[in-house]
């Protein structure tokens, strides 16, 4: 188990499932949570055909999560491309303690996931709209 700077450990399967998404395209998205034992654990995954909406539905209204989404797009030259997006979901309605725990553990956890293209920190549903990815990704996305 890897550790994070806040004292939160990371289950080994968190990284292996990410690698399956990245290299084998086995999943479209992944949602992680910090459990009661202060470990980052896998909560759920979306099959390769899963929609972005199904990913957003897994982000709880009153609790924090980390998420990964594999965003496919066609660039201006017509080539199929993909960008892996890291989400730090910390809704305004979440309690302060989990917000602090997720915030202090995020950087160490993200460093374990090699291959992330960019990050979106979101506090409400409007910040995880597909337009947020397109904005971060640029005009070619």
Q: Structurally, how many domains make up the residues?
A: 1
Just give the CATH class: Alpha Beta
Mean pLDDT, as a whole number?
92
Query: How big is the Rg?
Result: 15 Å
C-alpha geometry: globular
What quaternary form is this?
A: single chain
Organism: Pyramimonas obovata
Keywords: Actin-binding
GO cellular component, one term: actin cytoskeleton
InterPro entries: ADF-H, ADF-H/Gelsolin-like_dom_sf, ADF/Cofilin
Structure description:
By secondary structure, this protein is α/β, with parallel strands linked by helices. It has a single domain, classed as Severin (3-Layer(aba) Sandwich). Helix content is 31%, strand content 30%. It has helices spanning 12-24, 52-57, 96-112, 130-137, and strands at residues 2-3, 9-10, 29-34, 39-46, 65-74, 80-89, 118-122. It has a seven-stranded mixed sheet, sandwiched between helices. A hairpin with a 4-residue loop joins strand 3 (29-34) and strand 4. The model has no long low-confidence stretch (mean pLDDT 92).
